Amino acid sequence: MVIYPRSIQSIFEKNLRPNxxxxxxxxxxxxxxxxxxxxxxxxxxEEILKLNGEDILxxxxxxxxxxxxxxxxxxxxxxxxxDEAQHIRNIGMILKLIVDTIEGxxxxxxxxxxxxxxxxxxxxxxxxxxxxxxFPLGQLEYSKVEDFKTTQENRxxxxxxxxxxxxxxxxxxxDKEAYLYQIMNDYLLKDILKVDGVRNSHKLYSLLRLIAFQxxxxxxxxELGRQLGMSKNTVExxxxxxxxxxxxxxxxxxxxxxxxxxxxNNRWYFYDNGVRNALIQNFNKLDLRADVGELWxxxxxxxxxxxxxxxxxxCTNYFWRTYDQQELDWVETEGDTIRSYAxxxxxxxxxxxxxxxxxxxxxxxxEVIHSGNYLEWIGE
Length: 380
Known about the structure:
- By secondary structure, this protein is of the alpha/beta class.
- The chain has 16 helices and eleven strands.
- The strands form two sheets. A six-stranded mixed beta sheet has the order 7-6-8-9-10-11, with helices on both faces. Strands 2-3-4-1-5 form a five-stranded parallel beta sheet.
């Protein structure tokens, strides 16, 4: 299996400070454990205490919340590492006592559920915690080990199979498909069903499939509820949970000037194209598909999210559409700066910014992101 350098490395090192908790979150199988294991090579084995929150014995070691217990456990240690930390009861209070009383200790806590981990650790660790996200592999990481020609040759497969690191060990198309079905069934859906209040796996799967067929479109929670026989509030709660276990994320409509701008409904994208294609059970090549535009849009959106996170580009993302059908796929605001984009896989002719957009936001930049220039936008 190819080991790719992860773009989070420098931010991770900067945020791992004495008497602070560094929380690394992301979906299962994106490489959190491998990344941490590689990072730990810089330390001597006797300087590290490693625990797994899913191991009952490991979890029991830190359940006694006392300075004496933690002083004994961490004597001579520079680093405490807890994998799947969300499974440890009262983890927030435990880590607060550790970083407040054990001089110089650095703590890494990783997990696959932002919902559980923030719920368990959030309030006690205010001012004591940094949070970083690790995503499936992105172009920023591929570009470190492959040249432009290789990237172009691999583009179709990345649109179809996404960026889970373990895919690199499979050369056959069918093996890649099988791996992604396993990811979806054994990890993603299983994690979601562990979240309190989610009982109906069939409805959850159906909801995800409906979202998967609506990439680049505004999603009405009322309409989803009608199709699924669920209330709008339940649909909203399920989507919120899906976002907190890193399956999908929400983009809102941009609105500052015009009453005719659409802001009521959101658009939803998947963090990984492969997961989206597993849900709709379609791993056909691009020349046999009718949804290339949707694949391209989801891919660019997810890659841009990775780029923003890893380069610490602090901006807010939107789409823009009006009731008279003028639209832009992507809008970013960074302070007073507004950047707008249209996504086109094949650029037959270069579209211009919509008239309504130019009139309302003359200060905004506009660019078409297509298969000839996309690498500069997502991290060549």
